[in-house]
Amino acid sequence: MRSPDSPIMILSLRRLTVAAPVMATLLLGACGFQPVYSVQRNANAAALATIAIAPIEDRRGQQLRTLLRAGLSPKGPADRALYRLTVKLTETKAELALRKDESATRANLTLSAAFVLERLPPYPPGIANGSAISINSYNVLESDYATLSAENDARDRALRTLAEEIRLRVATAINNPIVFRIPRPAAGR
Fold it and tell me: Do 66 and 86 share a domain, yes or no?
């Protein structure tokens, strides 16, 4: 039996530390793994640019739509939309950390988005849906202006987080057509 300090064992361990990452890379490539951020012939960017984003209610919705457009098609939308993305945005505030006079010193701003990605012709009909949520905290200060500014900053952070989360989920859905389910006709038709 060889001792752990023998030159042969040390050489074997060195070979193993070099071979393990190489083998892991080869195995991941063989299983069909493809990173979401890959730019393999720019296919993901081209597919994301074919998504038409439906108008979203309110000012917050307009901001989210602008962020989604920038994330999905930074070079501009494709000539023809193959998908339609519909988003419903909701916002709630919760006051935390109350003083003795029951005024808040901290608040949570929660933005949640439910979205539906619908395939358009020439694809067969299909729908993928999901949701994303972002919770951001801010300080409630003595100055109303400072509090409003902190709340708006929290809202901006939440919208950026939601836009990125939706972009990633939509990219995953487009790369995996199995996610799309066939829409059922409405009752009475």
Answer: yes
